[in-house]
Amino acid sequence: MSKHSTESDVAFIQALAELLNTNALTELSVKREYGEDDSLEVRVVKQANIVTTSVAASAPVTVAAPAAAHAAAAPVAMEDPAQHPGAVTSPMVGTAYLSAEPGAAAFVTVGATVSEGQTLMIIEAMKTMNHIPAPRAGVVKRILVADGNPVEYGAPLMIVE
Q1: Which domain holds residue 103?
Q2: What is the total count of domains within the chain?
Q3: How far apart, in whole angstroms, are the C-alpha atoms of residue 69 and residue 58?
Q4: Does residue 51 lie in a domain region?
Q5: How many CB atoms lie within 10 A of CB 147?
Q6: How far apart are CA 36 and CA 3, in angstroms?
Q7: Fewest CB within 10 A of the end CB: N or C in the chain?
Q8: pLDDT (tens digit, 9 = 90+) per residue, 69-125?
Q9: Is this structure's pTM higher than 0.85?
């Protein structure tokens, strides 16, 4: 992290975020050197297909489903997977991997029975592979991340009931 806490660093980061959006990029990583012992490393990640809603206590949220060419739109109840009692959330920011290596079988699949402590996936953070264990025994109902996609701290990864 830079010893410089200046407006130019903030402007630089804002420019990177704008560059990310205008060029349809999903991730951008830059290191800015100020001197021998002073630098700024910035990683800007854009998460696609994430829908965040804030709702008053227990009020249902409905959205119109995309209408087919000649079909009427039907309301669909949106649920926040992070609020599900069986949600397994990310303990860190990183990249999620569903298998130990490319081409290998996934640690778990939808419908698989898992035991407490069993590896569900790996999250790579700072070149370290962190195994994510099942917090409880149960059945994998949903996998909410795709292999190789970035995840944020607290993001729901799977539903295990």
Answers
A1: 83-160
A2: 2
A3: 33
A4: no
A5: 13
A6: 12
A7: N
A8: 344 444 444 567 777 788 899 999 999 999 998 889 999 999 999 999 999 999 999
A9: no
